[in-house]
Amino acid sequence: STTDEVIITTDGMISTTDEVISTTTSMTTTMVSGITIAFQRSITIVS
């Protein structure tokens, strides 16, 4: 039925959003750790 299709489509959209969020989260984590390492290195060089 049409309702089933709508539910399936909604489920697909939700799972896609979840994937985007997890990808963004891992990218942010990688970026933050990269910045942290660079920051620590620059401090080491200064001192």
Topology, element by element:
Layout: H1 2-46
Description of the molecule:
With 47 residues, the chain is mainly α. The protein has one domain. It has 1 helix and no strands. The termini are far apart.
Please state the structural category: mainly alpha
Number of strands: 0
Q: What's the overall geometry? A: rod-shaped
Distance between the termini: 69 Å
| SS summary, helix count | 1
Give the mean pLDDT.
Answer: 92
Low-confidence stretches: none
Largest sheet: none
Order of helices and strands: H
Helix percentage: over 70%
Strand content: under 5%
Radius of gyration: 20 Å
Q: Structurally, how many domains make up the residues?
A: 1
In short:
0% of the residues are buried. Helix content is 96%, strand content 0%.
Keywords:
47 residues, 96% helix, mainly alpha
